[in-house]
């Protein structure tokens, strides 16, 4: 069922679209404030928001029409703006990831229809019945294509999910993967277990060996990429062609990036960078002292930090 849209929406809009409420933790919805990328990033005080959300590994978060969404313990959960209680979203499948692409929210699943979509104006999620009949783990947009990581290979759609073609059936697509790509770069990264793979032809072929050691975290944006390996943290300013050691002051567990702003969840709290990961400062206000941040997600104007046992949310300006 569709509810009428009050305002026309740009197809390229990602968050804060005209007529769309922006999620605000612990407060009533308000209009999003403009962000000036030339100014130092401001991370607000983290607020503990775990009630109703199962503890453990998160399969991603996303901001959508005045609410935060998260995948946890194979379920999809929704946190309305100003609420402190997560609500289970009936999906009829075991969710593996959630992501916001343009004006729609997408959920991958290991069973059921394998892919679900809710556009602005929709009341509920609808199964994408054209999706491949294989467990799906990640979805991202690269150029004009949607790339879907499934257990039988990487699939691509050029018509917003109406039809799909196979890109590759080779490694690393034989199990769960994390896909990472910057809109400004050709290269796509895939983290499968602790092995980092990369493709320079939109996923047709893949190679490993960019970095040594086991990889535990990666993020990429514009021309830079951040990687945590068993040998230490690394930074690249040419999108993975060469890497240099990165000093965060603690081992990173997760990275997130937007524009020239980078965020790192470490074993001793949260770090933030205003210069594409060159320099870092602490931004752990509201987190218990010395808290390990095992996962970190940017969702619209919110930063979501998970310790594995509890979830904290802060606003970002």
Task: Set out the fold topology.
Elements: E1 47-48, E2 58-63, E3 67-72, E4 75-80, E5 87-89, E6 95-101, E7 104-109, E8 115-119, E9 126-127, E10 136-142, E11 145-150, E12 153-157, E13 165-168, E14 178-181, E15 188-192, E16 195-199, E17 207-208, E18 215-221, E19 224-229, E20 232-236, E21 244-246, E22 252-258, E23 261-266, E24 269-273, E25 281-282, E26 295-299, E27 302-306, E28 311-315
Antiparallel strand pairs: 1-28, 2-3, 3-4, 4-5, 6-7, 7-8, 8-9, 10-11, 11-12, 12-13, 14-15, 15-16, 16-17, 18-19, 19-20, 20-21, 22-23, 23-24, 24-25, 26-27, 27-28
Question: Which key terms come to mind for this protein?
Answer:
single chain; 317 residues; mainly beta; four-stranded antiparallel beta sheet; 28 strands; 43% strand; globular; disordered N terminus
Helix content: under 10%
Poorly predicted ranges = 1-16, 28-35
Cα gyration radius (Å): 18 Å
Morphology: globular
> How many DSSP helices?
0
Mean pLDDT across all amino acids: 89
Count of strand segments:
28
Walk me through what this model shows:
0% of the residues lie in helices and 43% in strands. It contains no helices and 28 strands. β22 and β23 form a beta hairpin.
Task: Please sum up the structure shown.
This protein is mostly beta strands and 317 residues long.
């Amino acid at each position: 069922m569709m509810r009428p849209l009050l305002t026309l929406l740009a197809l390229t809009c990602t968050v804060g679209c005209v007529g769309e409420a922006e999620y605000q933790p612990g407060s009533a919805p308000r209009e999003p404030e403009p962000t000036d990328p030339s100014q130092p990033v401001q991370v607000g005080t983290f607020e503990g928001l775990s009630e109703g959300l199962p503890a453990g590994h998160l399969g991603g978060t996303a901001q959508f029409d005045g609410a935060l969404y998260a995948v946890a313990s194979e379920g999809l959960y929704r946190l309305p703006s100003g609420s402190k209680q997560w609500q289970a979203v009936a999906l009829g499948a075991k969710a593996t990831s959630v992501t916001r692409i343009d004006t729609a929210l997408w959920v991958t699943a290991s069973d059921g229809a394998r892919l679900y979509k809710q556009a602005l104006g929709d009341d509920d999620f609808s199964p994408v019945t054209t999706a491949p009949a294989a467990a799906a783990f990640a979805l991202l947009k690269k150029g004009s294509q949607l790339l879907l990581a499934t257990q039988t290979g990487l699939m691509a759609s050029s018509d917003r999910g109406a039809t799909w073609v196979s890109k590759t059936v080779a490694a690393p697509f034989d199990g769960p993967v994390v896909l990472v790509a910057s809109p400004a770069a050709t290269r796509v990264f895939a983290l499968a277990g602790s092995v980092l793979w990369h493709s320079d032809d939109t996923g047709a072929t893949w190679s490993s060996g960019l970095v040594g050691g086991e990889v535990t975290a990666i993020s990429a944006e514009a021309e830079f990429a951040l990687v945590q390996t068993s040998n230490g943290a690394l930074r690249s300013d040419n999108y993975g062609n060469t890497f240099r050691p990165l000093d965060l002051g603690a081992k990173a567990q997760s990275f997130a990036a937007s524009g020239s702003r980078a965020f790192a969840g470490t074993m001793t709290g949260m770090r933030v960078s205003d210069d594409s990961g060159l320099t870092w400062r602490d931004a752990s206000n509201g987190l218990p002292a010395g808290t390990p941040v095992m996962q970190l997600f940017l969702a619209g104007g919110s930063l979501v930090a998970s310790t594995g046992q509890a979830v904290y949310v802060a606003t970002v300006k």
